[in-house]
Amino acid sequence: MTGRIWCLTIVLTLLLGSSGGCEQKATTDAPSAGKGQQTPENAATPTAAGEKLVVGFSQVGAESAWRTAETTSIKDEAAKRGVELKFADAQGKQANQIKAVRSFIAQHVDVIVIAPIVETGWEPVLREAQRAAVPVILIDRGIQVSDDSLYTTLIASDFVEEGRMAAEWLAQKMGGQGEIVELQGTTGAAPAIDRQKGFAEELAKHPGMKIAKTQSADFTRAKGKEVMEAFIKSDREHIQAVYAHNDDMALGAIQALEEAGMHPGKDVILVSIDAVRGAFEAMVAGKLNATVECNPLFGPILFDTIEKLRAGATLPKYIKNEDRLFDQSVAAEVIDSREY
Ligand code: GYE
Fold first, then answer.
1. CATH topology for 159-295+326-337?
2. Best substitution site from 63, 64, 195, 291 to test ligand 1's pocket, by max atoms within 8 Å of Cβ?
3. Alpha-carbon span 314 to 246, nearest angstrom
4. Is the CB–ligand 1 distance for residue 294 below 6 Å?
5. Is the pTM of the predicted complex or chain greater than 0.85?
6. What confidence tier does 64 reach under pLDDT thresholds 50, 70, 90?
7. Which residue minimizes the CA distance to atom 8 of ligand 1?
């Protein structure tokens, strides 16, 4: 950790307390000191006493168990705090998200929350929000913008680190030797880009290991199964390991492997990301070998952050969720304590 990261961590600790077990650190493209501050244009104005806070939330869709857990967490927390939540499901389309954000601006919501489907294409609509002085909080996925004053803060996991954790575990499990097929998340999405990057970077330390095939399966179980079936058809003998960017795709791949008479978890090693209940069940059944946690329970940290913002606090540009890896050896012991 660099000095600046520690410094920002301390700032966050002061601002947000120890809420949700989350720690903050700067992203690699983190702003220089001071840039993370609220600009006057997008600073939230406190709602008059007794008035309900109105938050517009543009969600990606319902492609995975992780995503539905995130939606539930945010809806439940809003209800608990008496916040009016305007929820828009984009059904996997950025155009729908942009439309939803425009409608939130027109309705003069107090804060807009976006889980951005892809990294690019956000500048015009974010400028509209900034002009209307509606602050935007990004949740769970990051974006690329030339001007980071266009959003207030990003609350998310470090996907590069998740990819590295998966690769490190796999390299150890396979003794530094073997071929891997990769099921990527949605093309252009931050978790797909960064989970591939972190995994490839870590794998490069092991010359005996390589990614033999890689393809997007859009973070869904159905596509995970479909792409895995194609991989099996084209080169069954060489499939030694699967790295899936989320658990749903791994669960689809497990189904494809079993239908092909193969033994997932035994003759094919599988590692994925999210740590949803279905992944723990598959680990307990011996079919999935490991999963990296990516916590979707954003409700408490999100609304804590909104409250700080409205109280006039200076927020860091990146609030990081901490992740860890679980493998089969701990699955049975841990499964009942899982919250999603
Ligand atoms: O890992 C995946 C989901 O954006 C971090 O999106 C999220 C990812 C999550 O569909 O399951």
1. Rossmann fold (3.40.50)
2. 64
3. 33
4. yes
5. yes
6. very high
7. 191
